[in-house]
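Consider the tokenized backbone below.
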């Protein structure tokens, strides 16, 4: 029968991974919503307001990706001395960095590629 301390550590690790996934889902939803607003709301509102709303959502997605990595790393550092298998911080940072770059590219594309009519 497993030790109750090791089971508690496993639950903590899994909760940390679920929290990371929730932040990533939130960021992806904000990114997709911002891009959808920019694509499908044109013609129904002034272009500047569509760009502003979409930009806020896309920037929020980048912040959510950053916070996902930051929160994951925060708990990982506290548990580094324990013998617990976790997703490496390097992998989490890399995936969050890629998503942040994608958000910033989407933001640039929003302002420079969409028609200004």
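A designed sequence for it:
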């Amino acid at each position: 029968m497993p030790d109750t301390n090791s089971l508690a550590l496993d639950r903590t690790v899994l909760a940390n991974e679920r929290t990371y996934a929730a932040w990533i889902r939130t960021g992806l939803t904000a990114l997709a919503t911002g891009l959808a607003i920019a694509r499908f709301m044109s013609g129904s509102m002034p272009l500047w307001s569509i760009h502003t709303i979409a930009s806020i959502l896309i920037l929020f997605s980048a912040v959510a990706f950053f916070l996902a990595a930051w929160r994951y790393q925060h708990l990982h550092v506290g548990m580094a001395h324990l013998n617990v298998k976790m997703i490496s911080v390097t992998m989490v940072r890399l995936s969050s960095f890629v998503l942040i770059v994608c958000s910033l590219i989407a933001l640039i594309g929003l302002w420079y590629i969409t028609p200004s009519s």
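The radius of gyration is 19 Å.
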